[in-house]
């Protein structure tokens, strides 16, 4: 299914990542865990495409499959290199072996959630940032130092920091180091996996602004994974909402936050804290647990938690449909429901 019009840099088609459950002598084979279960979307060059959902919804697994840090079970990851020759066909990254992926590793990088555990404490910044540059044959010797100095300054650190070790830096500075390491190979596409969720709110804004500045100066495309809707609204152009391994809503930032069309999105938005508790009482509260990806509910996987469910929702699985141009929803009742978005809560707070 095509969810965007023009030439995307990345198109995901029917992507699945299933984990086979182990079978012992005394147990029957259990159903596989469907961490990612048939995802389709396309991302335009220069876009920031958000993936949001509760912890365990499959968004990080999906991001890692796209960066090929994990092997997908099935589906396609079509990557078209920006600036490639006219008529150059996209490459299906899902089919490539580790050696086949090597030419694309430089293009696709990741920024991780936890800058503390993603940086080797025994390595200086020169080694952390310089290692991928040397391994990929981009530079050696003095030129590596010059590149690392330049990268440190681009992310708001000083060149003389390169002799220090990660423990000497704050959480926000460590995330800047992680960003410098990702930039060392001049990537085109970066999977940002919860890059600010471990940081204080004031530091989050600095890192988000840095990512936006780098995107503009380096023509980067981001897949931005987060569970915080405020962060997603701030930085993303379009957003896909995930539930139990599937996209349940996909829209532009503006359309999603002005009028969500899926009850799960409405409930996620209602869960964002607001100053007036009275507004919360009227909101769609997200009750119950995330469904088990090894044994998802019949029909609509969200139906046990959905306050709008009907009998049909319990038996018939909804497809992802384009309900209004550019706005895709996986819900039988998308056209008839009028759901609340963040502006409704603000409006209620403003009432006398
Ligand atoms: Fe709720 Fe039914 Fe829509 Fe699922 S299909 S989100 S249960 S109304």
Task: Briefly say what this structure is.
The protein is α/β, with parallel strands linked by helices and 352 residues long. It has helices at 59-66, 98-105, 125-135, 142-154, 171-183, 201-218, 229-235, 253-258, 263-270, 277-282, 311-315, 342-350; strands at residues 10-19, 33-43, 48-52, 74-79, 91-92, 108-111, 189-193, 221-226, 238-243, 246-252, 321-324, 327-329. The strands form 2 sheets. An 8-stranded mixed β-sheet has the order 6-7-8-3-9-10-12-11, with helices on both faces. A 4-stranded antiparallel β-sheet has the order 2-1-4-5, covered by helices on one side.
Account of the protein in words:
The chain has 352 residues and is an alpha/beta fold. 32% of the residues lie in helices and 20% in strands. It has a domain of 92 residues. Strand 7, helix 6 and strand 8 form a beta-alpha-beta unit. The radius of gyration is 22 Å and the shape is globular. The N terminus and C terminus are likely disordered. It binds iron/sulfur cluster. The site of iron/sulfur cluster has 12 residues, from loops.
């Amino acid at each position: 299914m095509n969810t965007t019009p023009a030439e995307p840099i990345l198109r995901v088609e029917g992507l699945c990542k299933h984990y086979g459950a182990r079978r012992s002598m005394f147990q029957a084979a259990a159903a596989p865990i469907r961490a990612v279960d048939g995802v389709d979307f396309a991302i335009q060059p220069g876009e920031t495409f958000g993936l949001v959902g509760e912890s365990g919804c499959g968004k990080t697994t999906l991001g890692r499959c796209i960066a090929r840090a994990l092997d997908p079970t099935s589906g396609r990851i079509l990557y078209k290199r920006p600036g490639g020759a006219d008529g150059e066909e996209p490459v299906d990254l899902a089919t490539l072996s580790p050696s086949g992926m090597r030419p694309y590793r430089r293009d696709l990088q990741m920024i991780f959630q936890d800058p503390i555990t993603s940086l080797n404490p025994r390595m200086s910044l020169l080694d952390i940032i310089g290692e991928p540059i040397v391994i990929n044959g981009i530079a050696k010797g003095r030129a590596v130092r010059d590149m690392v100095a330049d990268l440190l300054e681009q992310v708001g650190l000083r060149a003389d920091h390169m002799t220090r070790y990660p423990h000497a830096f704050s959480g926000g500075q460590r995330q800047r180091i992680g960003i410098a390491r990702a930039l060392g190979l001049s990537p085109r596409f970066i999977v940002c996996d919860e890059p600010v969720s471990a940081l204080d709110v004031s530091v989050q804004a600095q890192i988000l602004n840095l990512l936006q500045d780098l995107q503009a100066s380096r023509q980067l495309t981001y897949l931005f994974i987060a569970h915080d809707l405020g962060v997603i609204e701030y930085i993303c152009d379009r957003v896909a909402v995930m539930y139990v391994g599937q996209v349940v809503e996909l829209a532009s930032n503006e359309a999603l936050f002005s009028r969500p069309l899926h009850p799960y999105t409405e409930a996620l938005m209602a869960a964002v804290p607001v100053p007036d508790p009275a507004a919360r009482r009227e909101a769609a509260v997200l009750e119950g647990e995330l469904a088990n990806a090894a044994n998802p509910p019949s029909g609509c996987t969200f139906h046990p938690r959905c306050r709008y469910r009907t009998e049909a929702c319990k038996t018939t699985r909804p497809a992802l449909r384009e309900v209004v141009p550019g706005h895709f929803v996986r819900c039988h009742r998308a056209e008839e429901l009028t759901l609340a978005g963040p502006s409704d809560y603000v409006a209620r707070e403003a009432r006398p």
